[in-house]
Every structure is written in structure tokens, then in C-alpha cells.
Amino acid sequence: TKDVIENIQRITGNNFTVERGWQEIEEIISTWEVHERWLHWSEFLQEEELQYSKRYHYRVCWSVPTRRKPIPRATASVYFVIEISKIKPATLPVDIFFTLEASRLIRRPEQCQFREKWLKDIIENKIILMKRL
């Protein structure tokens, strides 16, 4: 997976649009080894203006609908940030990071292999919490 992600042609700062950012995220997700039963949808959340960069925030929501339960009891979200530097040349590729729901660990797609277990753990923990409440 790591080699595949490194071969993805990253968009540059001067070619960036919110739509192109969404497409880039979908391309990264397509390299993840996630079983086909997992479905996801994604949305653009916000643009954040910082002193030295601009950040674009997206959310990808995952679930496993079934015939018995087409509306899943819980979902797992992965949050992506695309950062465009105001200092570096606009011809350089954008930086992309992601975090899992309820986690502070920031990951780069090209530096770690996504694990389906992360999604399962989030959903299982939510279901356990709902049962306790």
C-alpha cells in the first residue's frame, strides 16, 4: 500500500480546489485494504486560515450496512486535513494528514498503512457505550 500511495500524483497548491482535494482523498482511500462491505461517504467541513498555511478539513464516514440492518448502529469517521503552505512554492504538492475519530494521533497516508481494524474498534466501542447507557 505504501508504494501505491507514494505513486499517487499529488495535487499542487496552485491546482488545489475543494473538489480536487476531495478527489485526492478518494484516491488515497482506494489504496486502503478495506473489505468491500465497508461503505463510506465524505464531506468537506471547513477551510481554516492560519498564519503560514491554509487547511481544508474533510470527513469520511464509514459503516457496514447489512440486509438486516441497512441503517448501521454506529459509524466511524476519519478526518482528513489538506494543508497548503503560504511559504513554500505553490508548485509543490499539498500536505495531507488524517486522524481517526476519538484519536489525537496524526498520520500521513504515505507513512502508514491503514488498518480496517481501526474502523472496527471505533464502531465496537460505540456499540458497547450505547449498551451501557
Describe the protein in words.
It contains three helices and four strands. The chain has one domain (18-132). The chain starts with a helix and ends with a helix. It has helices at 2-6, 18-29, 116-132, and strands at 39-49, 53-63, 76-85, 95-100. With 133 residues, it is of the alpha+beta class. A four-stranded antiparallel sheet has the order 1-2-3-4. Strand 1 (39-49) and strand 2 form a beta hairpin. It comes from Nyctibius grandis (Great potoo).
Structural class of the helices, strands and pairings? alpha+beta
The total count of helices amounts to: 3
Number of domains: 1
Percent of residues in beta strands?
Answer: 25-35%
Distance between the termini: 39 Å
* Secondary structure: helix percent: 25-40%
Tell me the quaternary state: single chain
Cα-atom Rg, whole angstroms?
Answer: 16 Å
Q: What is the typical, i.e. mean, pLDDT?
A: 91
Topology as H/E string?
A: HHEEEEH
Q: Let me know the number of strands.
A: 4
Coarse shape: elongated
* Main sheet summary: 4 strands, antiparallel
Given as residue ranges, the uncertain stretches (5+ residues, pLDDT < 50) are none
Biggest sheet: strands side by side, in what order? 1-2-3-4
